[in-house]
Amino acid sequence: MKTAVVRVIQQTLINEGFKPGTVDGRLGDNSYRAINEALTKRKEGLPGDWAAWSNPRKSIAYLQLLCKERSIDSGDIDGFWGPQTDYAADTLTQLLATGEMPKPWRDETPLSVNPNNWPLQNEAELNTYYGAVGTNQVSLALPYPHRVAWDLKTTINSYQCNAKVHDSAKRVLKRVFDHYGMERIKELCLDRWGGCLNVRKMRGGTQWSMHSWGIAIDYDPEDNQLKWGRDKAVFARTDYDAWWRFWEEEGWTSLGRSKNYDWMHVQATKL
Ligand SMILES: [Zn+2]
Predict the structure, then answer these.
(1) N or C end: fewer C-beta atoms under 10 angstroms in the chain?
(2) Are 141 and 93 within one domain?
(3) What pTM was estimated for this model as a whole?
(4) What does the pLDDT look like over 38-68, one tens digit per residue?
(5) Do the domain assignments include residue 184?
(6) Arithmetic mean of pLDDT over the chain
């Protein structure tokens, strides 16, 4: 069992008034005794032979009951660790850590519209449409002030981007400002700017980054790190649905929403 899950079990036992010892992520005699007491209290929800189960099996059954009590489907209360229990354990861990159930992500469908006719992510097409890397840049006057993510004391009111994406990006940011307002923008870190134009190769790749043409923008890189998926990246949360809708309605692509990495990033290409 994962350490994080054991900690959840131990903390819940303490919250219920049992004495599993310290929350150390390891199951020992004290934890097992407490689990036995907690299961005894819930014996109507258990199969008849539960008392004869091994301690590790009882621990899993206790976890399954904790899930069930919060309407998280962990399958049968059988004390076996299958994929359904594994998924339920992750959901419970997130619920107890954040106070929120994870957002259903199977339903997430990035919009596939392309009103600005952005080209495909292909070097030849990008050079034809946007010009050579690093060229054709203009200043985008921002509808709301941004702060530089790696130097939050520095506020900016404009940044450089490709001339072809200027109007679209400005429309999106105007809608973001109208929808969220400055206070909420700050709470959600939608003013933490992680860069746009940057002539460089992709991190972990050999081709030009979309930033080389000034057609990709990063926001709040610290809370949406390159390899983080929707379980960790803050921009995967429901609060950001409108943010993504505004970009996607202009045809921009979120790598987070389409590939589940690099949630900080949005780009004016189709994949
Ligand atoms: Zn990026």
Answers:
(1) C
(2) no
(3) 0.72
(4) 999 999 999 999 999 999 999 999 999 999 9
(5) yes
(6) 94
Judge if 188 and 234 occupy the same domain. Answer: yes
Residue 118, domain member (yes or no): no
- pLDDT above 90 for 240: yes
Residue 172 exposed, middle or buried by CB count within 10 Å (0-12, 13-18, 19+) = buried
Residues within 5 A (CB) of ion ligand 1: 216, 218, 265
Q: Rounded to the nearest whole angstrom, what is the distance from the C-alpha of residue 195 to the centroid of ligand 1?
A: 7
Strand partners, 254: 266
Q: Which domain holds residue 166?
A: 123-267
Ligand 1 centroid from CA 63, angstroms = 39
Question: Ligand 1 mean position to 264 CA, how many Å?
Answer: 7
User: Are 133 and 253 part of one and the same domain?
Assistant: yes
Residue at 86: amino acid letter: D
Q: How far is the CA of 216 from the centre of ligand 1 (A)?
A: 6
What mean pLDDT comes out for the span 228-244?
93
Tally the domains of the chain.
Answer: 2
What average pLDDT does the segment 152-170 reach?
97
Q: How far is the CA of 89 from the centre of ligand 1 (A)?
A: 32
What distance in angstroms lies between residue 111's CA and the mean position of ligand 1's atoms?
20
Beta strands across the sheet bearing 192-195: 151-162, 137-148, 192-195, 216-219, 265-267, 253-254
